[in-house]
Amino acid sequence: MARSASSSGADRLKYDGTSSTSASICLAGEIRRRMKRAAFQLILILAMLLPIGTSVAAEQEVELVSIVTPASRTNQAWDQQGVDNLVATGEEMGFDVAVAENAGYEDITPILQDLADDGSDLIICHASGYQTVCPEFAAQSSVPVVVIENPSAVTEGLVSDIETQAQEAAYLAGVLAGLETKTGTVAIVVTGEPPTWNYMTVGFAEGLHSVRPDATLLYSIVGEAAYDDAPNAKRVTEAVLAGGADIVFGMGDGASFGMIQAIRESNAGQPGEQQARFIDVIGDKSESEAKDFLLTSVLFDYTGVYQQLVSDLKAEEFGSVVTMNLKNNGVRLLEPPIPVDPEHMEILSETREKIVDGEIEVSAIGDADGTHERLEELFPEDN
């Protein structure tokens, strides 16, 4: 670990990805734990000295929150969004942040143990692939953890779950794609079928169908957990472009840049009205090489749920399901960075209100089989 000062004056911790830690950091973690125990003992003493019936309000201190990401914290996608949002939350609420990046999808228990030894008050396991290992570690270590889309793991005081209900914002993206497509062929390219991607696949397909039921929807999978496989993502995207798709909804993390490269090369030399466009997820790539053809993005904003999780931990109410959705702006559509028909934007705004008000219900389907079944129902000739 190395410590560097942030612009707000709060310190940030960055984990180097190894299973060993320096003695100084371990000592710091031990000192922090001793101080917490001492504070708790002081509260008990005060409680005994006060008259009967007098209560002592105590809030648990949260000084260090850690996050484990499978890939780089600078990938302009899932991993970076989680880290950046946590750092912003730490600066606002006054806690330090430790980042264990590039942890992969193998056993991350050694990393979790190091973060616990360093005094982490809370560990955010920022991948659905950590659904099992993190709750098991919490049970063994008594260090609270946050998991992604595993509500059955919720345990009072130990495990909270983040549900990313992005299907609603993806529905809006599907509506926009249906209104904007010129060829009538739209593609979804995914780098796997985790619950998060499946929610958005179904939401997007339902939105597309609501305005363009006669559209052709191409659904392609790059591979299993191929989140950083840019070369194959490029190959698959080239195939859907050759199949006539002029809008590609891509879910890929680092692999998204392969999709973007395919579209950029396909657009080269083409008139503007014949160029394909890209719909991204999680982050904002409007300043990237996709800026000229980025139609929109399904943005994830974790700051609200991170604030709630830390507040719950302080209040000793940790252990619940917290949800990101359209209503609380945990997920939303990026304002199109390229020109879009104003009438289409009006329709989007009206549709958003109907979703928030409950007039439109978007299916929440997280499993792969259910996703394929729903696609078959909506576009039987294409899937």
Secondary structure topology:
Blueprint: E1 2-5, E2 11-15, H1 23-49, E3 64-68, H2 78-93, E4 96-100, H3 109-117, E5 122-125, H4 133-141, E6 145-148, E7 159-164, H5 167-180, E8 185-190, H6 195-211, E9 216-221, H7 230-242, E10 247-251, H8 256-267, E11 277-282, E12 294-300, H9 303-314, E13 321-324, E14 331-333, H10 342-357, H11 368-378
Parallel strand pairs: 2-4, 3-4, 3-5, 5-6, 6-7, 7-13, 8-9, 8-10, 10-11, 11-12
Antiparallel strand pairs: 1-2, 12-14
Helix pairs in contact: 2-9, 3-4, 5-6, 5-10, 6-11, 7-8
User: Which of globular, elongated, flat, extended, rod-shaped describes the shape?
Assistant: globular
Query: By CATH's scheme, which homologous superfamily of the largest domain applies?
Result: Response regulator
Mean pLDDT over the full residue set:
88
Main beta sheet: strand number and arrangement? 8 strands, mixed
Q: What is the CATH domain class of the largest domain?
A: Alpha Beta
Number of strands: 14
Describe this structure in words.
This protein has 383 residues and is α/β, with parallel strands linked by helices. The chain has 2 domains: 2-164 and 303-324, Response regulator (Rossmann fold, 3-Layer(aba) Sandwich), CATH 3.40.50.2300; 167-293 and 338-378, Rossmann fold, CATH 3.40.50.2300. Helix content is 41%, strand content 18%. It has helices spanning 23-49, 78-93, 109-117, 133-141, 167-180, 195-211, 230-242, 256-267, 303-314, 342-357, 368-378, and strands at 2-5, 11-15, 64-68, 96-100, 122-125, 145-148, 159-164, 185-190, 216-221, 247-251, 277-282, 294-300, 321-324, 331-333. The strands form 2 sheets. The protein has an 8-stranded mixed beta sheet with strand order 1-2-4-3-5-6-7-13, with helices on both faces. A 6-stranded mixed beta sheet has the order 9-8-10-11-12-14, with helices on both faces. Helix 2 (78-93) links the parallel strand 3 (64-68) and strand 4. The model is unreliable at 1-31 (pLDDT under 50).
